[in-house]
Amino acid sequence: MATTDDPHRETFERIKEVRAQAIHHARLAQQFAAERRDLMQGLIAQGVTQADIARELGVSRQAIQKMLSV
Predict the structure, then answer these.
(1) Neighbours of 15 (CB within 10 A)
(2) Count of CB atoms within 10 A of residue 55's CB?
(3) What is the pLDDT of residue 33?
(4) How far apart are CA 52 and CA 36, in angstroms?
(5) For the HTH cro/C1-type domain, which residue ranges apply (predicted)?
(6) Is residue 2 part of a domain?
(7) Number of domains the chain is built from
(8) What is the spatial distance between Cα 16 and Cα 10, in angstroms, rounded to a whole number?
(9) What pLDDT is attached to residue 67?
(10) Is residue 62 part of a domain?
(11) What spatial distance separates the first Cα and last Cα of the chain, rounded to whole Å?
(12) What is the pTM of this model?
């Protein structure tokens, strides 16, 4: 077990900070994915096709299907 005077303490602390940041960013990514999905579903409800969305975003229609299915 590491002690407070451990020469690696700073590294361990940095690892903890980076892990916390990664968790935070993963949560943000989930929120953005949900928002993206809601926005696309809104477009589809207005009659925009998945192909139109894909063309506008520069991705395949299959990518749109995957984004909508998550």
Answers:
(1) 11
(2) 13
(3) 95
(4) 15
(5) 43-68
(6) no
(7) 1
(8) 10
(9) 95
(10) yes
(11) 41
(12) 0.76
Give the range of the structural domain holding residue 60, as residue numbers without chain letter.
Answer: 45-70
Dump pLDDT digits (tens) for 3-55: 667 899 999 999 999 999 999 999 999 999 999 999 999 999 999 999 999 99
For position 70, what pLDDT does the model report? 78
> How many CA atoms lie within 13 Å of 9's alpha carbon, on the beta-carbon side?
6
User: Which amino acid, residue 8?
Assistant: H
pLDDT of residue 39: 98
Considering the domain boundaries, does residue 51 fall inside one? yes
- Rounded Cα–Cα distance for residues 30 and 28 (Å): 5
Q: Does residue 29 lie in a domain region? A: no
- Where do we find the tokens 């809104």? 42
- Count CA atoms within 13 Å of residue 1 on its CB side: 2
Count of helices and strands (H, E) across the chain: 3, 0
CA neighbor of 68 nearest in space, from 60, 23, 58, 25:
60
